[in-house]
Amino acid sequence: MELALNLDSTIATPLHRQLYEQIHSRILSGQLSRGQRLPASRTLAHSLQVSRATVTLSYDQLISEGYLETRPGAGTFVAAQLPETLLQVVAPAPQENTPHLPINLSYYGQRIAQASPWENQPAAQYSFRYGHPSLALFPLHLWKKLVNQEMTANSHWMDYSTDPQGYGPLRDAIAQYLTRSRAVNCQPEQIVMTHGTQQALQLVTQLFINPEEAIALENPGYLGAQRIFRSHAAQLQPVPVDDDGIIVEALTNLSPIPKLVYVTPSHQFPTGALLSLARRLQLLDWAQRSGSLIIEDDYDGEYRYSSRPIPALQGLRRNAPVIYLGTFAKVMFPGLHLGYVVVPQNLVQTFAQARWLSDRHCSLLDQAVLTRFITEGHLERHLRRMRICYDRRRQALVNALQANFGEAVDILGDSAGLHLVARLNLRLFDEDIIHRAAQVGVYVSSLQVHNLQPCQGDFILGYTEVNETQIATGIQRWATALQMQ
Ligand SMILES: Cc1ncc(COP(=O)(O)O)c(C=O)c1O
Fold it and tell me: What is the pLDDT of residues 322-337, one digit of tens each?
């Protein structure tokens, strides 16, 4: 049978995901009926002009979710018994004459509607997913005790907060912590608490960017930031990075001069490069000359294993044109969903107003508990423990990669953060490499989605959720699946 599918290699969503979504939605809408046969993977790959691995990957996903089934010797079919949850939501196939609801999205709404949904990294036996700290090693008993104490101390936390910038004692604690450990230059009144970096980036973009105005950003760079900038119709100006971080000379050639430049100097996301001191000074000079504002995203700067944490760009000069963003997602746990912006003095009121308009304020109870966690010394104690643990895991990962991949792997990035990049020199597509890993219970992800240009062979490997034994076994399985040995 012919399937009219349409894949677009110019968008960020991987081809296998697009294929998965299109088949999935045809099953949901009834366009593909139960028991119907699908084309063989080779045939479909040929007609769509994609690799066979792309098709197999999406078929396998649909099989594992119960939408498709294979019959030995006969092929792949829409499952006769569709998953129960699906049956409850089966929508009738749209009729030609079904009237559409009069939805008239704003330009912003239209841009959001066109973007592909955020993809979660799936669970696996050996998961090298990135961006997550070890939840198992967080001192949960202590957190529970503090929650209990704060809940019973008074009931202020039940009401609206009167301060959209955030709980005063927490801002005091963060200002002291940032001055001490990140050499950030700030007073508590410059801090605005947010629901993580994502909300901070949303506020910054809303406040500074009109449609078509330019934002320079590292390439490859953080997809979460790219998506926010795009949703505001900003003109993205990708700037290359090398072993010393963003190449500042490339900024000087940009036209128009970008209003904002988004950087991750402590640990470039995703390559892991540390922005050298010379480049930091060069970047500050350039921003001062050109009137641009630097957005410094210090998402995991606390984790350095070979030297002391490097001071933030924001603190290098008095009144540096820098907005500093921090998050507790990596040093605590992502579900806490707290972060902050350090705002230049003259912009504090505007940020506070925007923060209130966005969703008033962060949970007062969470902020009060976090204050205790910081002021009683638990945060820095937890960080010291985690640095030792992640350093060992990182080393185990480097050793395992070198032992199993030998000359075929290069490891990028400084000895820092919660992930590294493995550059594999194999004659295989990234999707195939990921697929073969998945077949042996290993999850790895390609750097592709963070790159504005096509690229192959770079994999982001997180090492926080796997212990040294799991790292050794997982990498060995992956290498075997790739026939490295
Ligand atoms: C570069 C970068 N910034 C920020 C974040 C996360 O920020 P948050 O969870 O606070 O929105 C991530 C998450 O992985 C990241 O990679």
Answer: 999 999 999 999 999 9
Residue range 3-57, pLDDT digits in tens: 778 888 877 788 888 888 888 888 887 788 888 888 888 888 888 888 888 888 8
Which ligand 1 atom sits nearest the alpha carbon of residue 201? 11
Helices 468-481/430-439 angle, 10° precision: 120
- What CATH number does the domain located at 15-104 have? 1.10.10.10
What is the CB < 6 Å shell around ligand 1?
A: 131, 196-198, 222, 224, 264, 269, 297, 299, 327, 329, 334, 339
Give, in words, the CATH class of 140-380. Answer: alpha beta
Is residue 244 very low, low, confident or very high in pLDDT (cuts 50, 70, 90)?
very high
**Ligand 1 center from residue 328 Cα (angstroms):** 10
Give residue 198 CA to ligand 1 midpoint distance, Å. 7
Give dist(CA 288, CA 321) in Å, integer: 7
Site to substitute for ligand 1 among 132, 135, 217, 222, most atoms within 8 A of C-beta: 222
| Fold (topology level) of 126-136+385-481 | Aspartate Aminotransferase, domain 1 (3.90.1150)
Express each pLDDT in 382-409 by its tens digit. Answer: 999 999 999 999 999 999 999 999 999 9
